[in-house]
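Reply to dn_fold:

You asked what the input looked like. This is it:
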Amino acid sequence: MKTNNDLKDLFEGLDFDVAEPASQHEDRFREKLRKRPQKKMPRHNGVITMWLPVMAIAASFLVAVLIFQGIFTTPFSQEQELANVSPEMKQTQEFYSSVIRTELAALKEQKTPETEAVINDALAQMDILEKDYENLKTDLGKSGQDQRVIYAMITNFQKRIDLLKMVLEKVNDINTLKTTNHENNII
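and this is what came back:
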């Protein structure tokens, strides 16, 4: 441990400014302080002042969580397929989709100048049903897989298939009438 003599030796080698300020130095300093415009400190309740840093940290944390959630995950998908509900619903969707594709292909094969108007009208109605189905997918995402929405989606599939079958029957009737309607009769 160092003794007092060692400390005195240490400080003797250093040159400290030990001069006293001028006699009116303090008065001039106080006068400058008085002339300087004073900033009014906002008066806050002690509780608000105490909680302000805590609220700032909480707000920063909330913003960080929302950004993280928005970038890396979708909080709740706005559009959800029927296949996402369960494996059975996936099979149902695949079945109905394949039947609709098959019926549409058959309908397009039957297109002739005589049946063009009927087929175009059916395709327009199919577009309307498809838009309804897109709305139902959004509803399913918002409702959290509500059974009523699932039933409405299945009903939409059934309506599309029924429409296509009905139009195919009409087209077949038109084609049948065309071939049997007095075309073979000679006058």
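The chain is about 70% helix and 0% strand.
Hope that clears it up.
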